[in-house]
Amino acid sequence: MLISADDAVTRLKAGNIVALPTETVYGLAGLALSEVSVQKIFDLKKRPATNPLIVHVWNLGMAEKLANFSDLAYRISSLFWPGPLTLVLPKKGVVPDLVTAGNDTVALRMPKHPVFCEILKKVDQPLAAPSANPANRTSPTMPEHLFDLFGDNCPPTVDGGKCLIGLESTVLDLSKRNPKILRYGPLSQKDIITKINGISISPPDPIPNVSKISSGDRAPGQGRVHYAPSTPLYLYPSLNRLLEEKLSGNDLILVYSDQDEKAVHARGWKTIKLSKNENAKEIAQSLYDTFSKADKSAMKRLHITLFPSNGSISDAINDRIRRAAHELVN
Ligand code: TXA
Ligand code: MG
Q: Closest ligand 1 atom, CA of 171?
């Protein structure tokens, strides 16, 4: 059911949960300081209680009530908030253990989407909002995805159209001595280093090589299969390698450009296009929608290569593709 922003405010204040647009992906929001609301989020997502949630704030004052900010945290938040950056910081006592999965840190983000911000402001309380997908599925980037993912259990949704960025925020851990990226996202390590002289940031742990659903991973929620379409996706190191395969009419190839599409069509195989000319922003924005369309195409197998270009968001695109892959082909 689509609802208005004002209706969302009323439902949130009453302790209920709603799906809201952000500039990255749709979030499933509830009052972060209410265990009852937060439990509803975990239940609907079937999210393991070991995977903590991001808490959204609309100003620094609200953030300071929830976490301890170091000088570096103040600097980074002043440079990149509002925006697609989540900071993991030492938490204060008011944040329920349920939100942080018992960790002594809390993940905070100040989103940039005007509708989400207006709702946050009117609710005037921090909102916990993980991506609005059942655990281990791709995040919704438009309301139709929510209907597809949840069916009859679809939460009331505020329609914000297509999310501008299309991939989840960068998660940066500032709670330890050395800053560390926990999840690649729209803001790259380089984007942060360029703005802050002398800072050194560790990259995320490598993705485990086993094709199994997340359990016992070091960074919570960073399991191997995590952003997956339901049709098996095969990942190749290059297009040339993919073109060596013997595929059939039940195979669909995801391509990055008109040129790649031509090469695949020359083999007589079907394609679905992420972009016309390897445009990274366009690919990020359409990745999950393309997974969703590919799922609906009723093909038996999907095939993709890593995105070959370097750019701010390329690491995040390839991270999500690796996690979505059912099998890595050598
Ligand atoms: O763009 C986004 O971040 C979206 C929108 C809705 O804001 N939200 C989102 O939330 O992607 P979620 O729950 O799907 O992903 C949150 C990530 C997970 O990988 C989770 O494990 C990590 O942040 N996280 C949350 N709290 C953490 C903590 N205290 N320590 C380490 N990682 C944490
Ligand atoms: Mg998620």
A: 23
- 312 — pLDDT class (breaks 50, 70, 90): confident
Q: 248 and 303 in contact (C-beta within 8 Å)?
A: no
| Per-residue model confidence as pLDDT tens digits over 94-131 | 999 999 999 999 999 999 999 999 999 999 999 999 99
Q: Out of 3.40.30.10, 3.90.870.10, 3.40.190.10, 1.20.1330.10, which CATH number does the structure's domain 2-195 have?
A: 3.90.870.10
User: What does the pLDDT read at residue 310?
Assistant: 78
Atom of ligand 1 nearest to the CA of 56: 7
- Cβ 183 under 6 angstroms from ligand 1: yes
pTM above 0.85, yes or no: yes
Domain covering 233-328: architecture: 3-Layer(aba) Sandwich (3.40)
Which pair of structure tokens corresponds to residue 153?
């259990």
**CA dist 110 to 36, 77, 191, 280, Å?**
23, 9, 18, 24
